[in-house]
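Readers of this paper often ask what the protein records in our data store actually look like. An entry from our holdings is shown next, in its original layout:
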Amino acid sequence: VPYHMHSDLSLLDSCTKFEDYIDAAVDEGLKAISISEHGLAKNWTDKWLYCREKGIKYIHSVEMYLTETLDEKIRDNYHTVLIARNMDGVAELNRMMKISSDTDHFYYKNRISFTEFLNMSDNIISTSACLASPLAKLDESDPFFPLLAAKYDFYEVQPHNHPDQIAYNKKLYNLSKQYGKPLIAATDAHSINKYKDEC
């Protein structure tokens, strides 16, 4: 199931319409799809309805921005993928997105604090996302690092043939043994094909 992807609703990150992803998933015989836009689950009800029309399960998700502190205006904006496990998770995720846009949270982007992330319920599944993850960018001596590493449900590896990604995948593999967390694979898709990627 593709769960980490961005449509043209993730501003400047994609030229692919969410309908194109859903149509392709149906054509490939997939049972479910999750399109995790940056920051906010934009047009999520439209996605849900289109999935229902096409006979595929919609999974509610977002690639949320995290910050170490709200007390100081620091543009750290770490990435993490949040996925609703159930309808209570949908409601909780929507509340978190609303909070992330409040004036005391917003700084260049809408975001939630590490503490708010750590206090989320089990109704939300979390993955460590991409190279902008706190597990990639924080020093392991940071007091938040072991807390975040223990909180994530999955560590996300990606197949991109780049030295930084390869090193991060190896780091996540070692962390998965240390913390007993399963690995999950994603492409972090931003385009449905080479033409859209060039666009």
Observations:
- The CA atoms of residues 39 and 64 lie 5 Å apart.
- The two ends are 25 Å apart (CA to CA).
- Residues 163-179 form the longest helix (17 residues).
- The beta strands are 32-33, 57-58, 61-67, 78-84, 112-113, 124-127, 155-157, 183-185.
